[in-house]
Write a structure and sequence with these properties.
18 helices; single chain; 392 residues; alpha/beta; disordered N terminus; seven-stranded parallel sheet
Length: 392
């Protein structure tokens, strides 16, 4: 045992036999400290799009998954994205890889994760062809997932009918939302692109900005300060929590709120919101109950694939929440198509010329205006003569 522990101790950066390993069962937590060139060791069944994109952004040399990246439950696109980005994925390496000390140097060789000659774990090194075959098989089983979706939806409706239909349990907050637009940001699908598109909308309409967990950091990265942060506070930075936003802590139905301990340790105060749904769901319910005129969603889940990416436990609550607030809920991409805050350069030039012609006509109609135009014309002639003389 002592020999094995000795072999697993981190070596210096000069060790060309491998790259440092970062280990975490929570992929979104791992990506906060994963550095370019390192090996990510995760335990993530059915690797979803958002997690894969976060991993790719860290530029790891390889990803080792203790679980199966494609279980066949539904056609999740995470592994395919890693293949397209050229990131090797060692799949189903087993739970023992999660016990590897972080910082251990290792390399992926064929179907094994090795530290020198020591095999730390083995699995299947996925190829693009294998991923495509698994995706095709998963698509064939979608009918079963639809049945589970319907079952979970009815169960959630039974448990949360008071919250969904009568707003029982929604807390009071300081931030005024009534009569305003609310922009809810989740660090999900294409959130960066959507936020960039909506900058003009935010400047003009000044909506209440609600960050859902890491969505608060997404707003701060875009140089926009959130008014409210909603979530269980497990994937939001301390800097975001301290930015001055009102904090609404997602709690379990029995009142337990682990996130409250974190914010109290930072010397902050929060409002608990007990609910069985997801944090993005309670953010929508909160905005709707407090009188938001329009709810614009960035990075949230909208399609069946996205619901399945979230997992069976969460997708039914999202579906019903969208039904509840559907009359005022708009996806960010829809707003970007409807809202145009800027004119093309040609349009601006045409408007400028039309305005100058209209102004000149109005001035020429009066004696004082004609005198001013003649004076301006004389000055322009002088400037033109000076420019010609300089040029020659």
């Amino acid at each position: 045992m002592s020999r094995l522990l000795s072999a697993l101790r981190p070596r210096s950066s000069a060790d060309a036999a491998g790259r440092p390993i970062r280990v975490d069962a929570r992929t979104k937590r791992l990506t906060k400290r994963l550095q370019p060139g390192e090996i990510a060791v995760i335990d993530h069944a059915d690797l979803d799009r958002v997690s894969a994109e976060a991993l790719i952004a860290c530029r790891p040399s390889a990803v080792v998954n203790a679980a199966r990246s494609i279980s066949g439950r539904y056609p999740n696109v995470g592994p395919q994205l890693l293949m397209e980005a050229g990131v090797p994925l060692l799949d189903a390496a087993g739970p023992e890889v999660m016990a590897i000390p972080e910082g251990t140097t290792a390399r992926v060789v064929d179907s094994e994760l090795r530290h020198g000659d020591t095999v730390l774990g083995s699995g299947t090194l996925l190829t693009s062809e294998a991923v495509e075959a698994a995706m095709t098989e998963a698509r064939a089983g979608m009918s079963e997932q639809l049945e589970l979706f319907a079952t979970n939806t009815l169960e959630y409706m039974r448990r949360e009918r008071d919250l969904l239909f009568d707003s029982v349990g929604i807390p009071d907050i300081r931030t005024r939302i009534e009569g305003r637009h609310a922009l809810i940001v989740v660090r999900g699908y294409h959130y960066k692109e959507d936020l960039d598109i909506l900058r003009g909308y935010i400047r003009e309409y000044r909506p209440v900005l609600i960050g859902v967990d890491g969505g608060a950091d997404a707003l701060l990265e875009a140089k926009i300060a959130p008014h409210i942060i909603v979530g269980d506070m497990d994937s939001v930075s301390d800097a975001a929590l301290k930015c001055g936003a009102e904090l609404v802590v997602h709690a379990y139905r029995d009142g337990r709120a682990p996130g409250m301990e974190r914010i109290e340790a930072l010397g902050l105060q929060g409002v608990p919101f007990p609910a069985a749904g997801t944090s993005e769901d309670i953010a929508m319910l909160l905005a709707d109950d407090k009188g938001a005129e329009l709810i614009v969603a960035v990075g949230t889940h909208a399609t069946l694939d996205e619901f399945l990416d979230k997992g069976r436990a969460g997708m039914s609550s999202t579906f019903l929440t969208r039904l509840r607030v559907g009359s005022k809920l708009v996806d960010a991409k829809g707003v970007s198509r409807l809202y145009r805050n800027s004119l093309s350069a040609v349009s601006v030039l045409v408007l400028l010329l039309v305005g100058l012609v209209a102004l000149g006509t109005a001035l020429w109609a009066t004696e004082g205006g004609r005198a001013m135009l003649e004076l301006v014309g004389a000055r322009l002639d002088d400037v033109w003569a000076a420019v010609r003389g300089w040029w020659q």
